[in-house]
Structure formats: structure tokens, C-alpha cells
Amino acid sequence: MKTRLYTLIAVYLLIVGKTIAQHSYKMQPAVLQTRWAKEVTALHNHDAYPRPQLMRTNWINLNGLWDYAIVHKGEQPKENFGGRILVPYPIESALSGVQKSLLPDQELWYKRKVLKPKSKTGDRVLLHFGAVDWQATVFVNGKEVVKHEGGYTAFTVDITSELKAGSNELKVKVFDPTDAGIQPHGKQTLNPANIYYTPSSGIWQTVWMEVVQKNYIESLTITPDIDKKLVSVIVHSHVNGTVKLKTDNCIIAGKANTVINVPVKDMKLWSPENPHLYDLTVILGKDQVKSYFGMRKIGVAKDIKGISRICLNNKPYYNLGTLDQGFWPDGLYSAPTDAALKFDVEAIKAMGFNTIRKHIKVEPARWYYYADKLGILVWQDMVNPDQQLRPGAKVEFEKESKEIVNQLHNYPSITTWVLFNEEWGAYDQARMTNWLKISDPTRLVNGHSGGILYVNNQKAKGADTSYVNADITDIHSYPNPMISLNQNNKAMVCGEFGGIGVSVTGHEWNDITGWGYVQVLPKDLESRYDHMIKKLYQLKEQGLSGSIYTQPFDVEGEENGLITYDREIAKVPLTRLKEINSQLIRTAPYHLSTTIGNTNNIQTDVQYQTLLDKFNQNPNQDSTFLRGLTIMALHKKDQENLTKIGNAYIDKLKYPDIDQNAVFISQITRTSKDKGFQLFSKSDNPQRQNFAVNILMSEILSKLDNETNLAILDTVAQKVTEKYGKIGERASAHAIAGFAWNKQNWPLFVKYKNIIYKKFDADVNGLNINNDSWTIFLKSVDKFELESALNWQKIVLGREQYKDGGSIDTYANILYKLGRKEEAIEWENKAIATSEDPELKKTLEKMKAGQPTW
Fold first, then answer.
1. CA–CA separation, 113 vs 131, rounded Å?
2. E-assigned strands of 62-214?
3. Strands, E, within 382-455: which ranges?
4. Which of 117, 403, 541, 713 has the fewest CB atoms in 10 Å of its CB?
């Protein structure tokens, strides 16, 4: 009876917990949102079994709401953690429900309760992580069970011995310094701009548990051989037991951990035109997994003209590809849902491409499954090493690259490994290329994509030695494609070209600073793209084997995608793209099940007056219209209308203070009459406050420029302070101090600098203070002014990050000018001890001799 009661209570708590969880999750505001984001809930996000090539039926999805905490590195989080995060979305993403940055001196902690799964005696419970960026330490009931480094690879730990009956506590500690660390981090950066993007820290792929037999299948190595009409399979296990392989009405027996050759009769070859997959069942004792494989071969061989070309299944096969970065506006590294993950492969195939270059990122296993199933070749980049090659970076890159190659071995869609990209951290080219070739001789190795780079036909960098030991020579050329070097027995490809930027109003991450190698209007993209495909046709005749267009989707500030970042608008209709691509290759018809829009209604600057008239007749327009018209007014330098339209746009914003909206508002805010100024002047965010201060300062200085009655300045400061409060006081103090410096009025300068450094800690900057103090040292003989400068320097010397030889030297010189010679000499010796500047020793000798140092 008690057992039944406990079961009922557990079920009740589970139901209540699910209800609470659903209501406690809320996606954070995002500048752009994909259609799939609205389907994401705390209970349903990535629900599909995450590993299609090693599937079991008995698994427990641990995606959902976890507790989280961000703490200083080395500290422990508080017991209640203090927040909730939706797994598996990076903490910086809107879909995580958090949208906070993880800094290099911080750690991110996760915590959740898990029930011990129902199991039989001898069964094992495995805990799996699809990917955690970057360093993950896992604890079960307080005991560390595994530590894994590598932000792109899966890892598994047996937690059977640490589990107790009922509820158990699972914790994960994450350290991710992004581009401040030695680890491969792809295009993630702490300061996103241009071709570098927002970080994706923490758990960003599915977490799950599964119960397995005592003797279980750990992994599979599947290698097709179409020439011998067989597939080789290695069943990896901790025991060398008998295994059975079932495929296509064929059953083969063998031993675990040895090669088992399975004949494939009436072989159906895998290709993008016919992506046939064979089902595979593997049995070891009572353990059984489902898998699949495809029969294909990739290589380089000479055509009838003696040109080395990429061949698929022993026939020349042009690789017409696009550069896919795998970022999402709402999920960053994580697609919102499994359907979204599939969409990207579908969309690229619908455009008429047969190849995807997966650019310095590794996707979840299900992405490669869709590439296998739908039929598209994949060039898989290694995730580039730390570009500064700090100590330890090479070792970490080689370790993680080895894991990537092993993890992705079985996918027939992957035909090419790309080792380095555009000299980003490249080293030991010959050795590393050879290592990759030996690691997987069944695929092509592109040792250096873009080792030679051209921009507008000008060679930017690179050397012929980039391609030693590789199967391919590969140059990058923006915007128009070029053919790469012709080297013996190597195929020639153009690994990147294009980069044509097109802004689509209402579908931009940042509509003022959007970036592309070339910026054109939407109507021009189609003709430019058609011209480039015609050029590729000519290069193909000369021996080009493949080309990669940049890129299928916009990514943050990069607006050179064929489809917008939110996957809503095709800048050229997909059917038209497929038609253009068909000039180069023939692909089977493929139609998207999801409808996306086109660019017929794009606003342009040419329409400015017409759209302005529409606004003046009815200011209550939607936010997309208003944002586009605001940008036009900015381009036209029409300040009066910019203020009017910009204010109307800000009124429409539901979340004006989120970072992406705030950046835009700051770029259209010019005066204190603008609502952006009002928004920022009341913000608690220091950066927003600084922006408001700068605007007000500019306005005050414009009024003071020709002022000759200095007595009026205090009145100006008083009135501005009364009107704007602390923001006004700070702005007027800076403005008048700047005015006084220009007029060489040092008493006035010191008066207002004293106000700034006494009242506004946000303005305490070591370099600025040192410059102010040094100016007074050189220009003034007044005791009060010099003592004020000395006090400013004390602020600098009291903060370790500002203390250096130059700051100490300034302090010593002011002491000396005040007549405090012994103290000055003592401090000048300290300056010499912390700096190699030879001028400091000369200053010291002058002080000892009683000579002026100014």
C-alpha cells in the first residue's frame, strides 16, 4: 500500500512539476525570431532521439528547465542557484530564457533532479551529452564523474554506481573563455562584429540517459567499399562477444572489436540524386541498436582530358556548394527545433546545390542524418585552433580534431575534411594534413581552404605550400570566383566566393551596420549570382571541381546570405536559384514543405519621399515600416524627420532596452529631444548612461563655444543638473571641463574635474586621469591645482589595473613640483622598478640635482 501511495505521490509531483515548469519558462526578447521559436516550450524542444546511427528505444530525455548560476571562476554557487535555463540552448541565446554573457573569469553551473531509471540487476545507466562548450565537469550527488574538454563533441559517462533509489542531483560546471582561451571556438567572439558572432556557452545539444545491458554496444565504425561491394563494420564494446549484423535480408555473425565484412548484393549507390540508405541492426547479447549506412565512394581521378577531378562513385562530380555556418538568431548554435535543423538542409537542396561546406562548426548528429537522408555532400571543417596559438592551443586543437573525425566517421554525406581555413591558426601544414589523411583515407582532405585569398582580384595572402599532402588545391576569391592552382593529382576548387550583401528591411540583425563583401539592392543579386554561375561554368571546363558560395543564410551582421537570418525571406526565389544552378549541375527536383517569402516589398532610399508622405499622413505605421524609414532618414541626414520617425519607432518597440534594439537606437539618436536619449538617461546600464551623457555634452558644448562670460558657466551647470539630474550634472561637468581645457583656463578645468572624479566613479579611467594630472603638472604652479592633480593620481595608484610606471612617474613629478623632494625621489624609484623607460632615470637625476622636471 505504501509503495502504491509513494508512486501516486511521485506521479502527482511529476504532473505538477511539468505544469510549473511550463509556466516558469519564457523566451527572452530577440531582434529576430524564427517561426520555430514559438513551438519551443519547457517540455518540448528537441524531442527526437539524438543519435540516429546508434538508436535504442529505452532512453530518457533530460532537455528542459534546469537551475543555473553564474559565479566567479573557482567559487561555488549558492544553494538555490537563483535562475532557470532551458536546455539545450546556449546561455547567451534568447531561447535559453536567460540571454546573458559568460565571461572568461566566470563559470556557469547547471543543476537538476533526476529519478533513477527503472533497471534490472547488472544493467548500466549511461549519461550522454551531445555537446557542451567548452570545459564540462559533471557531478552526480556531489561526486565528480567526468571532465570533458571540447565544445563540439559528444561524451558519455556510466553513472550507475553513483545513483541511489529515487531522486538524484545532477550538476554540470562549465568554463568557456570563448576567444580569450586556447580552445577551438569557431566564429564565436566576446566582441561580435562583421564575420564573428555571439558566443554559445554551456550545454547546446541534447542531454539524455539510457539503460543498457551489462555488456553493451559502445559505438560502431562503418566503412563502405563499393569496389568490393561490401561494408565493413566494427562493433566497439568492452567485451569481445559474438555480434549479429542484420541488413537487407542478410544476417552476418562476427566478433565485437574486429572488422566484419558484410556483402551488399544488388548494390544501390548513395548520391545526392539518389540518397539510398541501408538499415542496419546490430545485436550483442541482449543489447540491440538500430543504425544505417550508405554505399558511396569519394576520390580524385583524372578525366578523359587528363584533368584531376573530384569523383563520386568513380565518376567526375562537380561539388556545387554553399558555406553554412549553423547560427540561429534565437538559438545561436542551437536550432530552435529538430524541424528547424532539417529545414536548413532542405532549403539548400531546394536552391539546387549538391554540397554544403559546414564552416568551422560541428552540428548535432541529426543534422548529418538529414544530410544523409535528403542527399547532399558535406565538406566538414575542423574547428580552427586559437588564432594566436597560445601555449597549449596546438595540443587542444589536435585532441579535439581527432574526436571530431572519429565521431563523424559513419556519415556517408561527409566526403571531405577541411583542415585549416585562411591561415586562421594554421601550423605544421604538411604534418597536420598527412595526419588527417592517415586518420581517414576514405575521404578527401582539403588541407587549407583559402590558403590563398583574393579580394577584388588582389591577392591578400597565402602560399602554394598550403596544399602539401592534400587532395585538393583551394583558393578563396571575393566576390567573383577564380580557379585554384593546378598541382599534380590534386583537384582544383574555389572554397569560397560571393559574399554579396543584401539588406532586407525587417529581417536584419543590425540594419545600420550590416556587412557583405559587396552591397547591392535585392533586384541586383539575381543577375550578379547568375553571372557568377556562368563564370563557374567556364572554370569548370578549365578543370574546376567544386565551388562554395558565401552563403545560404545571413548570420548576425553578415547580410550576404541568399535567405535572411530568420529564414523568412529568400532574396532570390528558390526556384530561380535552382534554375540558375542548373546551368552548372543537374539535381533532382526538391521542393520545400515550408513556404518562405520574397523581396518584392523591400523599401529603398529611392522611395524615401513617397514613404515619408505616407508617414506624415498616418504616423501609426508598423514597426518594420518605421525602422526602414528611420534608416532612410539617417542616410539622407534629415535630422528633423529622423527624430520624428525614430521616436514613433521606439514607441512601437515592446523591448527597447535589449542589447540589439539599444544598439540601433543609439545609432539613430542625435539629440536630447530624441526618445532614445530619454530611454538611455533613465537606464541603469552604464553604457546607455554614457551615451546619454555624450549627447548632452555635445549640446552643452555647442552653446558654450563662443561664450566669453565665464561666470555664466556655473549657471549653465545648475540649470542642466536641475533638468536632467545626475546625468545632467555629469554631462555639464564634462562639457565645462572640456571647454576650460580648450580655453587653457586651468582653475575652471580643475574645479569641474574635481567634481567628476569625486562624484562619478564611472569616469575613473587611469589613462584619462593620468593625462589630466600631467597637464596640470606642466601648466600650473598653483598649489591647490597641483594638490588636486595629486589626489587624482592617488585614485589611479589605488587601483591595481591602472598602476604602472607612467602613472607612478606622474605622481612623483607632481610631488616634486609641490616641493616634496624626498617623497618624489622615493616614488620615482618605484616608477623605475616597474618600467624600462630610460627617461625615468633622467627624471630621477634631475630630481636629485634639484633641477626642474617640467
1. 20
2. 64-72, 83-87, 106-115, 124-129, 132-133, 135-140, 143-149, 155-158, 167-175, 202-203, 207-212
3. 414-421, 444-449, 452-455
4. 541
Cell of 435: 595526419
Beta carbons of 524 and 533 less than 8 angstroms apart? no
Q: How many residues does the chain have?
A: 854
Looking at residue 385, the DSSP 8-state letter turns out to be: P
Q: Which amino acid is at 722?
A: E
| C-alpha closest to that of 72 among 160, 175, 178 | 175
State pLDDT tens for residues 150-206.
999 999 999 999 999 999 999 999 999 999 999 999 999 998 888 899 999 999 999
Residue 555 in grid coordinates: 548570420
This model's pTM is above 0.90? no
pLDDT in tens, 208-257: 999 999 999 999 999 999 999 999 999 999 999 999 999 987 999 999 99
- Report the distance separating Cα 528 and Cα 546, nearest Å: 19
User: Are residues 299 and 313 in contact, defined by beta-carbon separation less than 8 angstroms?
Assistant: no
| Superfamily for the 672-849 domain | Tetratricopeptide repeat domain (1.25.40.10)
Overall fold of domain 303-581: TIM Barrel (3.20.20)
Over residues 425-483, the pLDDT tens digits come to: 999 999 999 999 999 999 999 999 998 998 888 887 777 788 999 999 999 999 999 99
Quote the CA–CA distance of 419 and 429 in Å, as a whole number.
9
Q: How is domain 2-30+55-176 classified at the CATH fold level?
A: Jelly Rolls (2.60.120)
Cell numbers at 353, concatenated: 546545390
- Kindly calculate the radius of gyration of the chain based on its CA atoms and give it in whole angstroms: 32
Query: Residue 129: which of 76, 81, 170, 188 has the closest Cα?
Result: 170
Average pLDDT over residues 299-318: 97
Supply 99's cell numbers.
540571454
- Contact between residue 246 and residue 283 where contact means Cβ atoms under 8 Å apart: yes
Topology of the domain covering 219-298: Immunoglobulin-like (2.60.40)
Rounded to the nearest angstrom, the gap between the alpha carbon of residue 206 and the centroid of all alpha carbons in its chain is: 18
Alpha-carbon dihedral sign for residues 143, 146, 148, 151: negative
Over 700-745, what HEC string results?
HHHHHCCCCCCCHHHHHHHHHHHHHCHHHHHHHHHHHHHHHHHCCC
Q: Output phi, psi for 118, to 5 deg.
A: -65, 130
All cell numbers assigned to 635: 542616410
Alpha helices in 235-304 (DSSP H): none
Name the H helices within 246-301.
none
pLDDT of residue 1: 41
- Block residue for cell numbers 545648475: 718
Collapsing DSSP to helix, strand or coil, 48 comes out as coil
Q: Which pairs with CB-CB distance under 8 Å and at least 24 residues apart come from 142-146?
A: 142/169, 142/171
Q: Residue 255 corresponds to which amino acid?
A: K
For the chain, the distance separating the N- and C-terminal CA atoms, rounded to the nearest angstrom, is: 93
Longest dimension (CA), the chain: 101
